[in-house]
Amino acid sequence: MANNGSGSSLGPGGLDLTNTFFKPILNSDPPIPSNRCTKVSVIGVGNVGMAIAQTILTQDIADEIALVDSKPDKLRGEMLDLQHAAAFLPRTRITASVDYAVTAGSDLCIVTAGARQNPGESRLNLLQRNVALFRHIIPPLAKSSPDAILLIVSNPVDVLTYVAWKLSGFPVNRVLGSGTNLDSSRF
């Protein structure tokens, strides 16, 4: 790039990059913080679900975190752990319940719940067990948070993302899977 002497840089073809490309950035106002409250729900408080919840909490990603699990004692313990950690972090409201109503108004619902694969069990059998679980998870989740984005983490993630999309009735662009076709290749 050549300098034309006026402080601006001339790009290929004599294009003044400083005054054309960078000008909108230099002269724009900083973004205005919004007062919008964000709510993220994590379904399943196993190792993966809690790692996600802890990351959301420590990175100050959401104003509210809702946890759902079928095991009330484990759920309460995990909620208390997060609440105690939150005492030293930016204020995030943390709730937990076995009832999906706690997820009402969520912007993002992350589903990590699922059966563990037994030794020697095929991926197809695991899929059948997790589809049965999803029939109990996705409809009440979609009812409680009809405008949410669903992020599926449960395995086999590719197929379960499709199942969640069908069970939720959400548009295809609001049901995402964390997979990269790795699980599909294991069938």
UniProtKB/TrEMBL annotation:
<keyword id="KW-0520">NAD</keyword>
<protein>
    <recommendedName>
        <fullName>Lactate/malate dehydrogenase N-terminal domain-containing protein</fullName>
    </recommendedName>
</protein>
<feature type="domain" description="Lactate/malate dehydrogenase N-terminal">
    <location>
        <begin position="38"/>
        <end position="177"/>
    </location>
</feature>
<keyword id="KW-0560">Oxidoreductase</keyword>
<comment type="pathway">
    <text>Fermentation; pyruvate fermentation to lactate; (S)-lactate from pyruvate: step 1/1.</text>
</comment>
<dbReference type="InterPro" id="IPR001557">
    <property type="entry name" value="L-lactate/malate_DH"/>
</dbReference>
<dbReference type="Pfam" id="PF00056">
    <property type="entry name" value="Ldh_1_N"/>
</dbReference>
<dbReference type="GO" id="GO:0006089">
    <property type="term" value="P:lactate metabolic process"/>
</dbReference>
<dbReference type="GO" id="GO:0004459">
    <property type="term" value="F:L-lactate dehydrogenase (NAD+) activity"/>
</dbReference>
<dbReference type="InterPro" id="IPR036291">
    <property type="entry name" value="NAD(P)-bd_dom_sf"/>
</dbReference>
<dbReference type="InterPro" id="IPR001236">
    <property type="entry name" value="Lactate/malate_DH_N"/>
</dbReference>
